[in-house]
Design a protein that fits this description.
The complex is a heterodimer. Chain A has 3 helices and 8 strands. Chain A is of the alpha/beta class. Chain A has one domain: 3-Layer(bba) Sandwich (Glucose Oxidase, domain 1). Chain A has an 8-stranded mixed beta sheet. In chain A, strand 7 and strand 8 form a beta hairpin. By secondary structure, chain B is an alpha/beta fold. Chain B folds into 3 domains: 170 residues, Aconitase, domain 3 (2-Layer Sandwich); 105 residues; 121 residues, Aconitase, domain 3. In chain B, helix 2 crosses helix 3, helix 3 packs parallel to helix 4 and helix 5 packs across helix 9. Classes of the chains: A alpha/beta, B alpha/beta. At the A-B interface, helix 2 and helix 3 of A face helix 2 and helix 3 of B.
Chain lengths: 161, 417
């Protein structure tokens, strides 16, 4: 039940972070999808395709399938776990989930998928203040919780301070 | 604080069978929830047998194949199919077959085929102060609030895992220190004519959920126990507009013999004085239909109708024929008495469609009608019907619902101007 605790051997290079692993899973690579608002998986994400179905959500129409999904927050629904389990089974889950706060109900979908023996994405915790670094990039999330940018796929929006 | 399991729990979790799988699911959830330990539970109400996709069916069948059985009394919430045959849903193959397999699997795990969202009116009433693992938002609220048993909001997979392991994470509403009210919801300014009306409880519930959310609140200004059906309507509406898990009513609910006790002898952090205008606005918000010139169907029974509510329906219909169908959702605990003396047949002859084991917002039963208008007296149906059925909602009392069904058009006063 316990994941391997690998500590970094040296100072991580720039744009590489070590996040807390919430639920162990397979390392993932994919385009980052950084949501700009919390989402309810139940009713908000189509369990058949992974498309964001909530018309009021800013990223409505985008798909979470195959992405590194950055979640600033989740809106509780007791069926969120069922949606995530269905996405894992039908191959439309994100390749990794990066959450600002752990949501036990959502992550239960991954816990159950692991018990079923299905390959599951790793889920890690990272402060949402770090999310903009990864927008517009292909990101690699390691099984140890490391997050790094593989390459940029578009120009990141300039962050004004 | 990190989770620690006792020796028995560790031994079970280390196994290869499906009871081990259930224990690991509970333990992993407890770890994510920050619970320091697991606690024994006295019963469960399982919401996980409603079909959302094949993965849920496969999970339940895996539990069955691995030899799991529930170790505490476990009632089942609604499924996606009416297994009594009273109504016929539109769910098509292959989903229909998978939904059926799912319902069968949960029965094989030892769960009672109660198939109702009102288990507390079907003989499942856990003792005051006992820890239980209940799913279905309205059942959770009723269990905590009206019965004083202790449960968090258990969802798919975790509910059955708790029932198989007999354990739940020790956190949230299981802990007495989290059950005191921190907010007062004051009804004393409302006109008596409104608070005594049939729609007061669902309307005020929808307002309460929206304003209070997951904070524990105490309602003041209720003179006498309004009855289980009123508390049921209030809690269901509240849990459909906010993440309400527990409310108190001073002088009514078991953990609130008086206001000071409900507040745990502390000062409330917030007080909300409900005005006549707020109540009227909340009532208006329950309707989404743009005009009140048509009604295509009427649906009542969310949560499932009690025996007393069916009797009231029969009295209101009073032998007349309905011009549009009225879907009356209830459980087997009520259906049995309706079958015994031909009352179901009489209701159906009048134009009522009795729906058992399920309801019209969780599975497609209503005719697929774009732009249809559904009238209901349920705050919970009013909240979910537009998204789940595509029908616009017209909210009214049960009497208005029946009169509209008889007339074939809204017989509807609406909120006083």
């Amino acid at each position: 039940m316990t994941g391997a605790d690998t500590s970094p051997q040296k100072e991580p290079p720039p744009q590489r972070l070590l996040a807390e692993v919430l639920v162990p899973g397979t390392a993932g690579t994919g385009e980052a999808l950084v949501l700009s608002a919390p989402i309810s998986f139940w009713g908000g994400v189509d369990p058949a395709s992974g498309r964001i179905a909530d018309v009021r959500h800013p990223e409505h129409g985008a798909t979470i399938a195959g992405k590194i999904l950055f979640l600033p927050g989740t809106i509780g629904s007791s069926s969120a776990s069922a949606v995530l389990l269905e996405l894992v089974r039908n191959g439309h889950a994100p390749t990794a989930i990066v959450m600002h706060e752990p949501d036990a109900i959502l992550l239960l979908g991954i816990i159950v998928a692991r018990e079923m023996g299905w390959p599951t994405p790793v889920a890690v915790r990272l402060d949402s203040g770090q999310f903009p670094t990864f927008a517009c990039a292909r990101v690699v999330v390691g099984a140890d919780g490391s997050i790094r940018i593989a390459d940029s796929v578009c120009e990141p929006a300039e962050i004004k301070t | 604080m990190s989770l620690s399991l006792n020796e028995q729990e560790r031994t079970i979790a280390a196994g290869q069978d499906s009871p081990a799988m259930a224990m690991r699911i509970v333990a992993e959830s407890a770890r994510l929830l920050g619970a320091p330990r697991l606690i024994p539970i006295a019963s469960a109400h399982i919401d996980g047998a409603l079909y959302h996709g094949d993965s849920g069916t496969l999970f339940a069948e895996r539990l069955v194949a691995g030899g799991a059985r529930v170790v505490v009394r476990s009632t089942l919430n609604v499924g996606a199919l009416d297994l009594t045959g009273c109504s016929r849903g539109r769910l098509e193959e292959p989903a229909r077959g998978m939904a059926r397999r799912m319902m069968d699997a949960y029965r094989k795990l030892g769960c009672e085929p109660s198939w109702t969202c009102a288990p507390y009116q079907a003989g499942h009433r856990p003792a005051f102060g006992s820890d239980v693992a209940w799913g279905e938002s309205n059942a959770v609220v009723f269990c905590n609030s009206a019965l004083g048993a202790r449960t968090n909001r258990y969802g798919d997979f975790l509910d059955i895992a708790c029932a198989i392991s007999g354990r739940a994470p020790d956190c949230g509403l299981h802990r007495p220190e989290n059950r005191g009210a921190r907010l007062v919801f004051d009804l004393r300014k409302l006109p008596v004519a409104f608070t005594r009306s049939e729609i007061a409880w669902p309307v005020l519930g929808s307002l309460y959920g929206r304003l209070v959310g997951d904070t524990v609140g105490v309602v003041v200004g209720v003179d006498a126990h309004p009855g289980d059906d009123a508390l049921k309507a209030f809690g269901a509406a509240a849990a459909s507009t906010g993440e309400v898990g527990l409310f108190h009513i001073a002088g009514v609910t078991p953990e609130a013999p008086d206001l000071a006790t409900a507040l745990g002898e502390q000062s409330p952090e917030t007080s909300i004085v409900v005005t006549d205008q707020m109540a009227r606005d909340a009532q208006v918000r329950l309707s989404t239909a743009e005009s009140v010139d048509r009604v295509d169907a009427v649906a009542i029974g969310s949560p499932h109708l009690s025996a007393a509510e069916v009797e009231r329906l029969e009295a209101l219909i009073a032998g007349r024929k309905l011009a549009v169908p009225l879907y009356a959702c209830t459980g087997r605990h009520v259906l049995a008495s309706l079958e015994a003396d031909g009352r179901r047949k009489a209701l159906e002859a009048a134009g009522v469609v009795v729906v058992a084991d399920t309801c019209v917002v969780v599975t497609p039963i209503l005719p697929d009608r774009t732009g249809g208008v559904l009238m209901t007296n349920s705050g919970k149906f009013a909240q979910y019907a537009p998204g789940n059925t595509g029908y616009a909602v017209l909210y009214g009392s049960m009497a208005e619902c029946v009169e509209s069904a008889v007339a074939g058009r809204p017989a509807y006063a609406g909120p006083a101007a």
